[in-house]
Prior knowledge:
The structure holds two protein chains of two kinds.
Chain A: H1 3-30, E1 34-36, E2 39-41, H2 47-53, H3 56-89, H4 93-104, H5 111-122, H6 127-134, H7 146-170, H8 174-182, H9 187-198, H10 200-216, H11 219-224, H12 232-241, H13 246-272
Antiparallel strand pairs in A: 1-2
Chain B: H1 3-32, H2 49-56, H3 58-91, H4 97-105, H5 112-125, H6 132-155, H7 160-168, H8 173-202, H9 205-210, H10 217-227, H11 232-254
Helix pairs in contact in B: 1-11, 2-11, 3-6, 3-8, 3-10, 6-8, 7-8, 8-11, 10-11
Amino acid sequence: MNRFALAFRLPVIAWQGLFFLGPLFFMIAMSFFLVKNYRMEEAFELKNWARMLTRGYVWDSYWYTFGMAGLATLVATLVAFPAAYALAFRVSEATRRWAIFLLIIPFFTSYLVRTFSWYVILAESGAINAGLGTVGLGPYTMLNTPFGTVVGYLTLTLPLVVILQTVALANIDRNLVQAARNLGCPPERTLFAVIVPLAKAGLIIAALFCFILSFGDFVAPYYMGGSKPPTLPILIIDTTKSGQQWPRAAVVAVMMMLTLFSIAAASIWLAYRKRSSA
Amino acid sequence: MSARITTVVLLGWLLLVLVFIFAPIVAAVVFSFNSDRFPTIPLGSFTTHWYDTIFADAEIGEAARNSIIVSLSTSVIATMLGFATAYTDYRYSFRLKGPYLALILLPPTIPLIIMALAMLAWLSWIGASGQLWSIIIAHSVLTAPFAMAIIRLRLNQIDPNLEAAAWNLGSSEWRALRSVILPFCRPAIVSAACLTAAVSFDEFAVAWFVSGLNKTVPVIILEIVQGNIDPQVNAIGSLVFLTSITLVVLAQVFFISRIGRT
């Protein structure tokens, strides 16, 4: 290998090794460190793990986070699908490109500010309750509820889910859909027996991204869900920022990563497995 | 249901989804010009008061300066990392290429809060946390994959014979890179720089953890929001939207509009 090729490879490997792998491996190691007199000491002890895994509040938090992220994934998938279907099959190529450009914009705009806006819109004195009040309904409490958390998660994930589903649906072979229709297959049956199975991999990957983003997000459950109970990301923040217990926060982070790896592996298996029976 | 009704229902649903996605963006801009301290319907009167207060606020000015330094530096480093990886992927095949690509592409799949904790712990362990450049280091890792993806897409369109022709005519690999590959990739490079700057400009979780006392604009927003309802957030947010959207549109103009052409 010549110097030219190495000049492109080595700096990237060094930089990412030092600042991507380094932090991740150090965090895993840190979960075995000890904290004495507010100072972290190198050690290899299972104390942090034993402590965190035996606390009820950690598991409450774990299953709550898992459940809410799962709920957000389900809602996002169902809400996004008709929109993605419309973009894939019912609009022109140019309109679709414009819509996808619009859907990319929120990805690059402050999620924090968008969440704060929802806060204002959904408050008991906010826009929605003001509107409902004029027809004699409400006010409804929407903030600091699981509903608020899901709205927050969707703010983060919905644009991405719509984009990924649209790409998945737009890429399926139209001839197969047309063949089913020509052979007299009714529209609903075409949808569930032809279109959804053909787009399956993309739909599952979209759901996977939604789960990963929701599971790791602290803004929605904190500002819109009222943090009761705290989700795992909030637990990491509290443990790191106020408790100075970095090793315990690392335990939570490693738990989250193991969970996400399992979910990702399962999703990818589900998305790409060959059907054994016809 | 007839096909036409189905279409209307589907397009209506699509519109609702877009309304859901853009309502908070529009609301932030509207409320940033609203005189009431507590944003309610009906609106108060039109005011630029919240913009005046943020421009008068020294801490926010400092944060804006920090954010600009961080996002510009990040975009330079991330674009270089992205270009090096994209070019390596385009030109070479070697054993361990998979792990090599994973090294640069994986960061966005890891939740930001986990990256934040890991970066904080590691950077303070090696004595590099709490500085402005701590954020730059972290952001370059987080945003490099976006740069890589955009530049790689552009390299798909080049005729591989062009570079080989330059070598045959006696130009060195560096010279061929400079006069063939780089000019061809320029729109993608500019676009990658804009997008990585936009992502860095908005990132708050990692910046909040590793920045110490050097706050960026999103970290200030996070702190204000933690306090109470403050319409200044809408004003700052609107300006942040304007910045990010400008960068994304620039990226679009430079790249996506040209992707069809070679």
